Amino acid sequence: MNTRQLLFVTYRNEQIDEGISYAIELAKAMAEDIVLLLVRNGRKASELVNDLMAGVAFAEAGEEQTALQLAAGEDREQPGSIDRKITEMIVASSKAGVRLEVQNMERDLISGIRTFLKGNQSIDKVVLSPAVTESEALTTKDLNRLVRSASRPIVTMTRQSVRAAREARAQKGAPMRYVPSAGF
Fold first, then answer.
1. What does the domain layout of the chain look like in residue ranges?
2. Model-level pTM?
3. Which sign does the torsion angle of CA 41, 132, 154, 124 carry?
4. Residue 70 above 70 pLDDT?
5. What number of CA atoms fall less than 13 Å from residue 139's CA on the CB side?
6. If pLDDT is split at 50, 70 and 90, which confidence band does 78 have?
7. Are the beta carbons of 114 and 145 closer than 8 angstroms?
8. What's the distance, CA 114 to chain centroid?
9. What is the C-alpha to C-alpha distance for residues 111 and 11, in angstroms, rounded to an integer?
């Protein structure tokens, strides 16, 4: 087991696996293990209102359990799909020779990261998934405060960078092709 670790932070939602391939490649290159930190999802205000309205409709129809699940913001996917994605992530990292440890944090994003870093000195860097970086819950002010207080490098990812990395990996080994541009 490596003593150095990379902290990959994401929400426990349908985008849980976004960016994990980059984190695995980075950990492999740096000879580190990965700690996958799952933090509480800061729902958007519009999403919260929609969930509450749907919950009211289900409650009026006599579906109290469904109403409670919607009001609590529980996962919208099929039961077990997030656990299945976590298992797939563990298998993918294992195939790459990187150990992946999963930790849950029932706190919001910033306090969850801070609390985890205080108790884990082996964390070298923090990688924020695209779901975290592009969420409304993470403001520029919060990110700046995290950068100052974390005392470790913070890597942010966007969906565009993940897409570019996938395309580059797909083209790896493919012959270079010249495509003339139109109008010249």
1. 5-42+78-159
2. 0.69
3. positive
4. no
5. 4
6. low
7. no
8. 16
9. 14
